[in-house]
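Pasting as-is:
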Amino acid sequence: MRNYLTILAFVSLMSMQACKTPEYTEIETIGSAINETLAFKIELLDSIVVKDILVPSFAFQGKAGDNLVFRDKASPKVFVFDSKGKPLYSWDKSGDVPGNFSMVADNFVFDKSGNIILSDNIAGVRSFSPDGNLLFQNRTFQPQTGFHLIVDLFRKNQLINKGGKEFLIHHLDLMDDVQQVSQEFYENRKNLLLTDLSNGKTKPFLPFPDKSKFLSGKAFPFEDFRPVFFFDEKEEILYLMFQNEPILYLFEWKGEEPVFQEMFKINLPGFSSHDGWQYKEVDYGLLNARQLGSPFPSRIRNLEKFGNDFLISYNPSPANESDLEKVRNNEASKELKDKLKEETRTRTILLEMKTKNSSFLDSPPMRYHSFILIEGQIWWMKPSSIEVEDEDFIIYWGRISENK
């Protein structure tokens, strides 16, 4: 079951434009020899059950040392269990309390001591010990324009060590200082935030690369250019993709600012990239393409470095334009909507950088259609029950192996 928690601002219904794929000339395409026979699979290793939980949107967040951390995605409630599934702590940061955060806070990341780090675009960055003791907080970088959040387990931020200091890389959900959509907005935009956890100072960084479609003179809804990323500390390379652009960007990051190195187009079957709209068609703060007549837009959902390779999770778009037209005109039956949801479900490819080939990953059913990568292993939750509300939750973990 996919839950949608949406807080919208400045919603405007605009003219529609079909999904098309721009021409990325002079960009090397990798993953073109994609293996659709599921050459790799997630091999189950073990599982843990946590019991007697009555929470609307219970979501696994990761490991704090050997302990397992969960949250309620509909509130600032946190639950910590030991490695056998025994409850250790539960705490709530709602209301006017130190360290309060909202339901739009991103999925947690963890430092080497097992402390919880989160970024909340309403409240700011917070750090807690596993028992809920507030260790650090700062204010949000700037007031936000609006939010759109799909509940999943994918990593949204990254804790890194650079120059002997800890930083949090997180994404920039606000619409910057420019209060209208224009060429100036895209040219001046910085797409990521970097917070120094020693002093709370935050700076925006990383403009659009020169060849990005977002500098093409067209406008796009915010979710099209929300970034997914991974920084490899050993290589000092920042890998990044924008959600509606099938391009993998590589930046060398040895100094203060990342420096663009190269880019590759990734072959993602069924992925459709918007050409863009005229500036006047896209209001400031417009969040998603559905408001522009583009239902089921393609989205890059997650980017993870897996050894020397990459796991890329994405949602394709429906292939049949007449089906999309029925959705736009509110003429789609329940059967058609169910068909389109299945057609656009999240897929994951394993991209092998040495061979530049890719293969779909044979994945088991997953709650929230997503997973967490922890120390080279895939962690996921058992799908929700259809007819009853779950009180017991199973967490699985496994490894990627060849599908023989």
